[in-house]
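Lab channel / #folding
Pinned by the channel admin:
"Please post every new chain as: sequence first, then the structure tokens as a reply. Keep commentary short and put observations after the output so the thread stays searchable."

First post following the new format, from NK:
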Amino acid sequence: MISKKLAAEIINLGSSTGADFVEIFFEDTTSKGIRVENGKVDGLSQSNVYGVGIRLLKEFRSVYGYTNDVSKKSLTKLVNKLSASFSSPRVIEEINEDFKNKPVPKINKKVNWAKNVPNEEIIDMLKNCAGIIHGYSEKIVRTICAMNISDTNIQVFNSKGETFKDFKEYSRLALMSVASDNGKIETRFDGPGSQSGWDYFIKDINVNDIALENAKKVILMLNAKECPSGRFPVIIGNGWGGVIFHEACGHQLEATSVAKGLSVFSNMKGEKIANDIVSAYDDGTISNEWGSNNIDDEGNPTQNNCLIKDGVLVGYLVDDFNGRRMGEKGNGACRRESYKYEPTSRMSNTYIANGKSTKDEIIANTKLGLYAVAFNGGSVNPATGDFNFGCSEAYIVKDGKILEPVRGATLVGNARDILKHIDMVGNDLALGQGMCGSVSGSIPVNVGQPTIRVDDIVVGGRGGSINEF
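Reply from TO:
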């Protein structure tokens, strides 16, 4: 930690050359990782990330630097280097060490489980998962089962004379299997995570069932036929299926790109961008969820931000700095990976809201198409909205029934186009945990949606025409 007296000195130095806002971000993160490969402990690591990031703003300009040396000499050197970017008279008053404590909502409850659960207990769980996966089929040639845990404490001081403290606790189980048969290779990854501690893994979810499902699905897809190609309806499964909305549309609604006109949705608030049945939210206030926080990294309380309401774009994810260009205040969406990154607007728990259809109704109303359940990556061009996503689990749907699995499917489309082609939305909303990478680093996020149907989208595959199935 750094003292209030030192914080005031650094802030006053930072604002001496014309910066209109100065912020000091202190972080202390302890992380632990345990990895079991092919049933044997392959690694047990522990690390400590400790340091300070300093941000100076002047109108629409920002400069940022960081150091893991939190001495007065080091911080003075850093802030002097940053303040040299500006050369104007002081525009804000000097502050003293009498910082006002900013209130922090208690959305996430602190659990401290990483300090209380023995490593041996975690290792036993990981070995058990590996045994379940390996034992399902001799075609499964590799397993990696890991637990990653981090405990973060932060304190922020700013030139408004405010200070606040917060914490973040993450834990995630990672199960990966690799299956091989006659030159074909298939992989499967499952990664449930939470901020609820050890109870999440031993009470809230059934880890053994997840491991068995992992094994079943990797073998199922290993033996599947190649996916057909063409334009036809695609049903996208709930939970992790929301990664398409997250990547293709969610990033386009962050002020990071919107404020500079680099998003396909810039300057479109109030316009119709989706089918009437589509509403979408980013909710950072779900207690102890993977993507939730008490406050964002600028100290603004997290919110349940409505992004799309009945097909109309009603809001963006805004941080205070990019909000300057937009004429908007931050709405709790400013995040970063660590003190080494300048914060900016990012998603938290982002999802398409429940509709009125059931999953069975959506399937029954599909004459011929694809049912895409899980995804293994993709890419998006934020300037154009063009995207492509690979499906790690998909099935042919014919005459309202789910038929055989297919492998190698790729969905290709455009963010502005796909939202208008969502013609059915289910009522089985679920969330899926992931890590999101962007300009402020890699952060925990939830993606989510109920089962939805896109009535027309390009599907890439090597299995010929869908009419052959």
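NK: DSSP finds eleven helices and 24 strands in the chain.
TO: also worth noting, The chain has a mean pLDDT of 96.
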